[in-house]
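Q: Predict the assembly, please.
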Amino acid sequence: MEFLNPEPPYILFKDRPEWSDVTAVPQDDGPSPPLAPIMYNDKYKDATSYFRAIYVSQEHSQRVLDLTLEIIKQNASHYTVWQYRYRTLIALNSPLTEELHLLSKLLPTHLKSYQAWNHRRLLLLQLGKKSARSELAFAEIALAKDAKNYHTWVYREWLLCNFFAPMPFVTSTTISPTEGEEPTIEDLDDEGWVDDEVWREEVAFTDRMLEDDVRNNSVWHHRFFVLFEGPRARPSPELVQSEIDYTEHKIALAPNNASAWNYLRGLLSNSKTPLSTLLPFARPYTLPQSLQPSLRVFAEAEERELLPGENAQLPCVMALEFIADALGEKGEVEEANKLFDELVERDPIRKQFWEYRKRTLAQAPTAPVA
Amino acid sequence: MSLPSLFSSPRPTPTDALSTPTSQDQSSTESLIIPLLSKPDTLHRREHMMWLLRLLFRGFPDSYSSQDASQPWLIYWVLQSLIQLGGVMDPESAKKGVQTIMRFWSPSGGFAGGPYQNAHVLPTYAAVCALAIVGGRPGEGGGWDQIDRYCRAKLYDFFLSLKQSDGSFIVCENGEVDMRGCYCLLCVATMLDILTLELVEGLAEYIANCQTYEGGFSSACYYLSSARGRLGEAHGGYTYCALASLFLLRPLVPHVFHLIDLPRLVRWATGMQGLPVEGAGFRGRTNKLVDGCYSWWVGGMEPLLRELVREKAGGEGEWEDWDDAVFQKEGIQHYTLAIAQLAQGGLRDKPSKPPDAYHTACNLAGLATAQHRVARSPQVRQQMLGKWAVARNPQVEDREGRREAYLASCEWAEDEGADVYLGGEDNRVNAVHPLYNLTITSVRKMMGHFYAQEPVKSSVDQDD
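A: Predicted assembly structure:
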């Protein structure tokens, strides 16, 4: 229904009465034509010429907020304009919640802008923990638009660390942090050290996201971050076992999913569990499709329930690699090498890597599990 | 298996009959790539050069306004691409280049994205790399001489002002911390001889802490009281920056590579190379799509990973007998030539995407790494060591690690006779230095200037 409420026509800054007292400063490329110039359009040239003028005069006023917003809309990666806008907001003592709302409208079209996300982070550092919880919801909305957006995940993980975790210790350096930059956790209030509920909800959040796309690696990383790196990280044997079960089920759903195998390896290595513990689980994924029906019969007899799904395309490279590593770990070099040879056949792009694995095995045949 | 047989009737990525957004994107990308897999591997050198020269002299179209804060990058990408394709800068254009780049210098110290912008680490790296290509002419108009006179001391203060208590750096005042910034800062500090222990304190540990369970590196990490939170998953761009940074730090922090899990890194990096059905290009993260820029960010790590694997295996010896490349290097060349290249000039992310300067530079750097074999050369190191002249200022003692920093960058050399050109030697592009994405000659010449050393000629100086 946009035609009922059309955008007002754009007015160049040179035609805006409130800017009539300012002399625009065109980009100065020097005496001779520069190399690799950009052929800016008139609208952008106009706005940035006024920005250069206030950049020189160091004006911090309401109209500067209008101007910087306009430039950001046209070019969200203009970090100087963002920096200037932030300074102006602080100088004017502007209500930062309003800025946050404005940014919420802008961000979905600029999800790949480092600067837009950094601006949001700066605002949160000012607004404090009371605003942080709704930010998790905002990040979820952003992820609905782009489920693998790197900046959004980084922002979400930063929120969790900065507002919902114990105070970071400062490392051994004599240099003091840049003012206003390093999070100070001044918001650690009487709610205590760790917001258990927030971190629990994060796990449920990754469950939902993996229901949507079990191959989304960002989600797997986030789950690892929450369970094994965050302040609630308690890699108890129970947690490790329940994560193994969880991942095994996801692998059964779609075995050719590197994200799930990598997560499995990550949690085994994190908990110093030998890969060979999971040999019975992984074996079926290395057998061809034709053998799966008979496998099913055996499994039923043994009352094992978790098997590759009926549509699984097997054998799967990641399972072959897993078994090869597990055997290598146990010192069964010859058996492991056979599998690496099979991997050379099945995954010729990584031939060099599989050969390298064979060589390293030969050098350290009975390396104990780290 | 020969290359053509790899690419004839390739199998699609298995989906196990479970369709998700990832598998849908994957399959549409594969259907764009498959028709191009049988294209001949011929580099359209002339068309690329014409395309680049147009950008250099006539300029970038309006759609590049979003790069207004990345003007040094535009120049650097174009110049480096031209040099790799065998272009030679005429003195007049080089002079113009220096003039343009010096207008990005911010009086507060550091280069900015353009005139009337603030200093920022990333454009500083791009400007210095561009000057490595065009700045060598001595005298008042010479870029290196101007850096000497006006910029080095201020740059050092600028860098120090960005340092955080955890060892990392923000990219500009009030800016974000990420691995690109750390890498760019280390490159500049190393090339301009302003690398000190004070500057890099805690950085090696910070970077190592960004290695994720997958083996690659994240953009940043957060020091919690009991642990480290890796902010973001393992990513090709950040992993290159992290690995190259550790190499640049080694002269001052000799134990850097004990801080990371090398086998896990090698496993992750090799896992990023796409299947034949994806043209054997690289992706930047697990379960994401291939993109020509990762031919450099991931493919470009090949010499670095190979070096570490060799060192770990005990250096020389039987390893010499192996084809010790870490990746399928001809596959990378095929992705560049058949999939990423446009016949009318320019290189791109993948089919359906337009070509741009960034993807052109990255694709060509990846192609170069895949064609050549570049390694640390003990002979070159010995030669440089023999010629080492103490300090630019004889009153000043050599700083700790200064000589080692010089050697660790300048000892990389091309292993002649070990190059492989898919599609024939006509496709040759000049080799790149694995730590900088500049030619080895550019790095040696510029560092020779700033360290006041007589540069060692590389025996295959075809790139200038």
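Residues 143-161 of chain B form the longest helix (19 residues). Chain B touches chain A through 106 residues (CB under 8 Å).
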